[in-house]
Amino acid sequence: MSLLIRLAQDSDGYQLIRLIENVFYEYPGCVMDVDGEIPELRRIQTDFAKKGGEFWVAERERRIIGCIGYTPLPTRARSPRGIELKKLYVERWERGHGLAGELVALVEAAARGQEASFVELWSDTRFLPAHRFYRKRGYQASGETRELFDQSDTIEYHFEKRLA
Question: Quick check: is 164 in a domain?
Fold first, then answer.
């Protein structure tokens, strides 16, 4: 069962929705409202390209088992250039084998290719295993939080990694 990591296509929407639903199901209170809250899943490649970013999927036997993307952050005067890591999800049975690390490495390589000096991300406060994963990869919690005012009552932690 070989693994393929490739740039996403808009036609991947159905499988991306299924993947993220599976992950949300692991966390009580996480609600999936595609049309109301994350409609970009239906046209993922188009959405990320419009924002100057990229989105990848990992598939095994034509089934999407992981995904990740990034978008550039707005640059401010005298502020370093950065990108935002978005939507890192991996099926439960695929975790612990290095796939998430490979996906994050793609985003970090893209950031370096754009001469970004940092990568930032926001992660739901409920996703404790993800927080451990990010910390192991050198991401630091900034202490900043944000509330999304969505159906899941999401509050997110901010993480950042400086690139060498």
Answer: no
